[in-house]
Amino acid sequence: MAGVLAWTWTFTTVAAARPSASSTAWHDGRFHIDVAGVLHRSDIFLGRANTDPSEAMPLGNGHLGAAVWAAGGLTAQLNRADTLPDRLSGGQVVIPGLSALTTAGDYSGRLDLYDGEIREQGAGMQAVIYVQPETDTLVVDVRGANPDTPQTARLELWAPRTAHAAASGAVGILAESWRDNQRPGASGRRFGSLAGITAEARHVSATVTAPLTITLSFEPMPNGHFRILVAAPHYDGSGNARQLVQENLTAGAPEAHRAWWHSFWSRAAIIRVTSADGAGDYMENLRNVYLFSAAAERGVEYPGTQAGVADMLSSARDAHHWDSSAFWHWNLRMQVAANIGAGLYGLNGPYFNLYRENLPVIETWTQQHMEGRPGTCVPETMRFNGPGIEYESSWTPISLAHDCDARWPAYYNARTLSTGAEVSLWIWQQYLATQDRRFLESNYPVMAASARFLLAYEKPGPDGLLHTAPSNAHETQWDVSDPTTDIAAAKALYPATIEAAQRLGRDADLVRHLRAAMPTIPDFPRTRFSGPRTVLPLSADALGQDVIAESWQPGAQNHNAENIGLEPVWPYDLIGDTSPLFALARRTYEHRLFRAVADWSFDPIQAARLELGSEVGSTLVTVTERSQHSVNGFANWDSHYGEFYIEETGIVADALQEALVQDYDGLIRIAPAIPPGWNFDGSVFVRARTRVDVQVHGGAVTTVVLEPGITQQIRVRNPWPGQAVDVLSNTGASILRADREAILRIPVVAGTRYLLSRRDQPGAKEKFAPVSGLPASDVKKLGPVRIGLADR
Asked: DSSP of 532-597, one letter per residue?
């Protein structure tokens, strides 16, 4: 019938999954990646129905997120990021008639990341589930049902929710609104949740069957087809709830969601990873799950995730372990980085808006709580409307904490001063990546305000240096002197703010003060990697006994398991392979106190920056085996299901990108940290809208292609040290010939592609094989964890 989804159950099979070391994806002047083929490798295979909420599969369009599992036939939970402050669910829809499919002996299903849909089949029935891109509507499209068997679908909430239920004709709605005016730091804004349900079928009738339940009754079409539409649009109590639902329940083109996802993936940097033991393939899968989920729960005004939790993809009703009205920056940083490296800059829009929109409130909070200092002390844990308040209403007893508050008792982030600097540096990194001047103009005030505050907090000491005290080394050391995070913040923020101000022609006075302060920033503190944790002089470096300490009080008590001494490596980008502190940073990593201890552990990313490929692989495996307890690829922070966490997949995504290509200082490094035995084929975006395509097979770099976004001179560390390198454009022009320099300087033109090759191994002699793959046909396993569900 018209409007029925076109079903496609076959996949294109192109090339072998593991090309030989003599193959290349460069052909006819471009790097060939079969995006669909590679993405289908990461489909989540379901050999049996996912009947438990902990096995739910994610869907979403960036505004509306959903978790889908097979309880009661089929259950889907609706989630949004704008039902604050508690991030209340829009409800769950249950379709009992799909039990015939999900309990069938021949059941099979998959989450198709490339098409953005879940497909299931069994007992002669098929279902496809997706979220429409143009409306906030979940669609469950079914064929093969018995046309003579009546069907139902329930839209329901649970106590203590107080939604109003209404039904008229073929449409039922649940609507609830409230004002955020009860808790510390309340915004006073109105929020709400709204969901409506209908069906494309025969004899559709909606009825209120319980105070919080709408039941839809209907019969399939004569051909056995029916479609359930469940809308959950933005709602704040204003406007006509039924009209809002009706506008979203209008069925769009059945193929629209696929076109939306295909367009998304065409903009992403795709990476295929293989290894004989399957660990590389597993990490590739987790990266693709991250990118899919980041798009599905992007958010609009604010990020969809607030504490490293996949809030918009939850199957846990209204349960939230952390203050769902607040954002933890530490648990967002890996996601921002992963999005930049993947070239998906738009995914970071809500993150930057969170701090830009709240800048006036943060300035007021700083003046009121940080002894009248100018600028902004950006709270590490910040309420969505700007105050530095963490209010844990779900804890027993209820917990209240203040961040960026000079008078608050010592606590995890009471005096974490470096968050504003890091937010500012992500602004700067996104600008360097995109060269978007309007973006920089809009977000520069955050940089300037953060720099002004840090300048105001620093105090001159008798040594002629500027010091910060009391201050937290993030959550690990409280109220110490000169934490490494503050020193790194000043060393990175001040020059970035100076350059941004000069590019925009602003704040000459601030630039002058920052220039004066830079020579007076203290060195990073050092301590012994074993024995008493006392401060060591710089001369200890000659003996190789020192590591970077958390602060200039290295013996202070640790309250969390964070490797603060590695913060200068990443995310502050202060120590790289050309730094005189590189060996010190490697010792700091080797002797770090906390090893892969949490799902947010940055060990793999910092290992990549230190060019420790073996550590990249081993820590990715360790963190995943310890924290990824859900078959959808998500982690669980405490090893028990309650909420899905997206932060671990964000770590994986960024670590793979950093292992393949790095450009943190204007020098492109090719394959700096490939784990032994892992083959990489794919792309990473670096500065100035430049995409770098790389293949690494058998431990050797085999293909390097530059796709510049602007006309410039690109600096590349020679991928084959000591070897002569030729650079040829896709037009056939020779750009460089037999250059043996350690740093290649390559003039490039936007829109032209450039192949780098060893003079003694010209690419023309290699066999062409596009980067592709075969669709997942089984679960992926890694030690005790897995992605997907095996057959019974």
From this structure: ------GGGGGGT-EEE-SSS-TTSPP-S---GGGTTTTTS----TTSTTHHHHHHHHHT-S--S-
